[in-house]
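hiii, so i know i said id send this last week but things got crazy w the move. better late than never?? heres the sequnce for the chain we talked about at the cafe, plus the structure i predicted for it. fair warning i was half asleep when i ran it
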Amino acid sequence: MTNVIQVAILGLLLGGVYALMAAGLTLAFGVMRIVNLAHAAFIIASAYISFFAFEKLGIDPLLSVVFVMPIMFLFGVAVYQVLFRRIEGSKRFGEMTVLLTFGIAIMVEGLLGFAFTGIYRKAAPGYANESFIVDGLFLPQGDILFIPKGQFYASLLSIVLLVALWAFLRYSQTGYAIRATTQNRAAAEIVGVNVRRVSAISFGLSTALAGASGALMSYLFPFFPFRHWQWVAVLLALVVLGGMGSMKGAVIGALVLGVASSFVVDQIGPTWGPMTFYLALFLILLIRPQGLFGKEAPA
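okay and structure toks below
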């Protein structure tokens, strides 16, 4: 029983981080219908910023979120203004964003590979290899639970950022505009919403969330420039399970698959962990293509 609780705790902690990763991707799709295949590449690029800030300047990866997010926000706004505004009115906008973001991912990967080669990197703050030890009345005598400090802090920060994003979308004027654009882009434009400005801000927020995810990745997972392709499938599984464009679905999907993956790793082996996400992606597309909380496309 203790082992089950231990595995579930580890899965939930990782699920919190996965939720932050998926939130940016689902925000871009929900507002602009952009299937951003470059999102994982942005996460890897952000991980490099945080890694070198730690190595060269001694800035903790958790604290580096403070400047990585604004940098990536401005980068995202610039990318949208330069590339996506040109194709906004296209009838094949969705298909074109897939090709465009695929090209962006290849370019980011190439630049990172040229600058940093393919060496595995990982930041090593002191808490990354430490754990909280829990024992008490609810556990059998002699049993203890380990809560990794690095994953706990990362999950806690992810929750804070997700709550802040929810509050921003719920209560700010810009948040109202983003939600209106998500629900009906044409109607939002009719009532005076500047959908181009909203789209640029939304894409900036999406890449800012990728920046925060990258800062956490810098010490949670080893990374190198070409690793983003592995994360593309993971992120797509998370947002497709929850429903493309559904923030609530992305969070729930991340927690569910985080726990499921942890049990697979515990029972079968670490090699099979990623298969959890691929299998979930295959099954949800086969059984319920719109996801758990997504809306079925009109006929």
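btw The chain has one domain: 13-228. thought thatd interest u
miss u guys!!
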